[in-house]
Specification:
This protein has two domains: 33 residues; 40 residues. Helices cover 90% and strands 0% of the residues. It contains four helices and no strands. The protein is elongated.
Length: 73
C-alpha cells in the first residue's frame, strides 16, 4: 500500500517536471560534447532569420524608429 503512494508521488513529480528533466539531460549531452557549437550556430541562424522577417513585415515602424534614432544623434 505504501509503495503505491510513493509510485504515485514519483509519477506526479516526473510528469510535472518532465520538460526540466529532458532539458537537463540534453544540456549535459551538449555541454560534454562538441555539439554545443552546432547548437550555437543554429541559434544564430534562427535569430537572424527572425530579425529579417520582423524587419520585412514592419518596415514602416522600423523606419520611424531609425529616423528618430538618427535625429537624436
Amino acid at each position: 500500500m505504501a509503495d503505491n503512494k510513493y509510485d504515485n508521488d514519483f509519477l506526479r513529480f516526473f510528469s510535472k517536471n518532465f520538460g526540466a528533466i529532458v532539458g537537463a539531460i540534453i544540456g549535459i549531452i551538449i555541454a560534454f560534447t562538441a555539439f554545443y557549437k552546432f547548437v550555437i550556430y543554429i541559434a544564430i541562424i534562427v535569430l537572424c532569420s527572425w530579425c529579417g522577417y520582423y524587419l520585412q513585415k514592419n518596415k514602416l515602424k522600423v523606419k520611424e524608429i531609425l529616423k528618430r534614432l538618427v535625429e537624436r544623434m
